[in-house]
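User: Predict structure, ligand zinc ion.
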Amino acid sequence: MVISPDSLNRHLTLMKSLGATFVALDQWLDKAQQGADLPRLAVAVTFDDGWQDNYQHAYPILKQHAVPATIFLVSRRINTDWQFWPEQVLNLLVNHADLLEHPALTWLSKEVDACGYKRQSALSIEQADAVIARLKSFTDEQIEGPLQEAREAIPALAELPRSRHLLNDQEMQEMQASGLVTYGAHTQHHYRLNRLSDSEQLRREIVVCQEDLKAKGLNTLPVFCYPNGDISQKGEELVKEHYRAACTTARGWNHSPAQPYGLRRFNFHDGNGGNALTFLATMGRPA
Ligand SMILES: [Zn+2]
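Assistant: Predicted complex:
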């Protein structure tokens, strides 16, 4: 899921050479919803989760090309050294597989066994991905809780260095001041919304998230982004009530008149966009 700065630079250059007009997401929505003429090839750049590397690596390239972008933030994780559970599990399986024998990680080693992988020896990234895919049948809390307990029970795990990977206030303000970067809501805690049974919690993740961002003085578009692309009917009703559009993980172009609560995107990483050919093939492939 990683894209190198060189690839991002190449993508923007290539899109420009194809005649693309880079638009801010809200301006495109304004035009689409008013039925105004849209550019033949309009491109809106988005980033999910609010990673610090958006500031370190993507922002200089956006500035160089004067391309606007929207970053979807997880409001209660800003400024923290919090790690998404798939990152934590990946690190455990690839770099610290010896710890799987500890009783506090039995729940995880069971999943490794179920995939038919040998415990204790380090897993490859592909193998770790398969284990993470299995874990997605649980709720986020069902994984984050035991991970936290394991950190408390296993000193070697607690001592792993945790550096900050998410944006902080100063970085967000600096990008906003450039006029290029706007923000959108991506829940408070990055819980998958189709798995939340508590309706008050669902409301906080969807509605209060936007209030959190505004309270920070961020230029926040009324656009939501579903974590992992997942949403329930009740969640979608809340999104429709409080936002004017939502981004999904579905791949493809958005033809006007757009489905504003089901905006499609192309999720580029070096695996599907590392060179011009794969980049164009990814965009040309049917959804
Ligand atoms: Zn996300």
